[in-house]
Design goal:
Helices cover about 75% and strands about 5% of the residues. By secondary structure, it is mostly helical. Helix 3 packs antiparallel against helix 4 and helix 4 packs across helix 5. The model has no long low-confidence stretch (mean pLDDT about 90).
Amino acid sequence: MSYLANFNNENAKQILMDIIRCVNQPDNSKKLSEAKASAGKEMVLMLQHVFPLVMNLQLEVLKSHGFPGNREGLVQFSQLIREMEREDMEIARLRSQIRAIYLPPIAINTTNDILI
């Protein structure tokens, strides 16, 4: 847990940027494009094909920053980021950028606040 002792907003931003760089590496980008193409616009297929790829890439990056390279490390990092993004717009922006990779846009009727 020593990786948490010095964890701050700057570390969080660096890790998020490293995740984005990792996802955008040619081999990873190609795998994600293929997974997205096979999933189409189907949310369930996105969660089956794209989501696991993104999670594995995140785990690689987190492990290189001292987090456990397993589900626990990913959950722990995600919880820290969710707390930090409330007060740091750059962290919120970077997290949204990562989420956009595996979550397709959802149309919302803002007049009635319902999904369409």
